[in-house]
Fold:
Amino acid sequence: MSYVDGHSCALTRSLEDGRIEIDVTDVERTLRGLAIGRKNRGFVGSDKAAERHAIFDTLIETCHRHDVNTWLHIKDVLKSVRTHSASDIAELVSYRWELQHPEAVQPPLNCR
Structure:
């Protein structure tokens, strides 16, 4: 009970904001994939290659979390990154990009 008393604000946060999930299963599943990727990056050949691999892992997992077609997003980002100014680069983040490309949003999988 002392745990609940000490963490009541955090424990009830999902009741106040419907966007916050009550459990972290999806987040843990995403992090598991990243942890496996981190182990695999030890064999990519160089520190710079491992950094690029980590960037692509992050892009892919972010697309998955936002139900954005990963291939269309990455293809468009790679074409657009050269023409975007540094101040506009945030527009290419998947959850902003999907607003401009609603055709690329995939219906969520109901695997539960």
Summary: The CA atoms of residues 25 and 31 lie 10 Å apart. The chain has seven helices and no strands. Residues 67-112 form one domain.
